[in-house]
Amino acid sequence: MPKSQSPILIILAFFSIYVIWGSTYLLNKIAVNELPPFMLASIRFIVAGVLIFIIAKLMGKSIAINWIQLKNATIAGFLFLTFGNGVVVWALRYVDSGFAALEISAQPLIILLLMRIMQGKKIQMMSVVGVVLGFVGIYLLVSQKQVLNQENSITGMLMIFACMLSWGYGSLFVGKADLPRNYFVNTGYQMLTGGIMLAFSSLCFGESWSSPWVWTKPVQYSMLLLIVFGSIVAFTSFNYLLKVVSPEKVATSTYVNPIIALVLGWYFLNEQITLQSICAAVILLTGVYFINTKRKFVVLPRFFRF
After folding, report:
1. DSSP 3-state of 98
2. Residue 102 and residue 108: Cα distance in Å, rounded?
3. Segments making up each domain of the chain, as ranges
4. pTM for this predicted structure
5. Are 240 and 13 in contact (CB under 8 A)?
6. What is the pLDDT of residues 11-62, one digit of tens each?
7. Helix/strand/coil percent split, the chain, to 5
8. CB-side exposure of 195: number of CA atoms within 13 Å?
């Protein structure tokens, strides 16, 4: 097995997208309560992109890129970050962080359907069961009175769903696109281009920008953690995994992300966890499991050989 596909490296990358990304819902929720959403996301990704290029140069890595790779990185940056992440941050003003994570846990279902529509991939029987469970779980999640009674909650839910489509298409696109071979540099270009497009979006929507020095301490710490771990570490791991394992396997981060987000949102923000949300989570995650097991149950050591 090539060094870039070593089991240890793959395990660490999965840990990053499982646990670190699960905590970003809380961090974004804390920050967006004080900062405009597109400004928040723009600063996060531009700073992260610049830091990545500085680190790459210090490591002696080339950051050279051709026009096709730059175009593809820009497209990926828009799908993943400008729209796929920026709009989720916007939606967090209207829905709880744990709820957003639970809705996004249906991501493997979206990717499976997109692969069927765009690539003609046959859906196995186990995956069909997973799709049915996924839709049942989503219905239970979004039909709660506590959720529907919140102002603009339906708009927030619909926008998160649109982000899932964007992220799902981006996952398929990146898996085959010509991008910089170095995953770190690849992440840097996506972060920088996505962040610049978010800055333009912020200006178009008339958001007011402010200096980090006037932010409250919780927001400053949240932004720091989002930049270093949520952006640089986790997103680099995500891009790496898209090249060495299948998109469906990468999407299994949704097994763990909503659990982390629910617990953190409950503990730090006093977000309510209803019995219906728990039932929806169990059904959704069971559906995701069926989607990814295909015909056989997959044991953990075997999973990380892909």
Report:
1. helix
2. 12
3. 14-294
4. 0.83
5. yes
6. 889 889 888 888 999 999 999 999 999 999 999 999 999 999 999 999 898 9
7. 80, 0, 20
8. 20
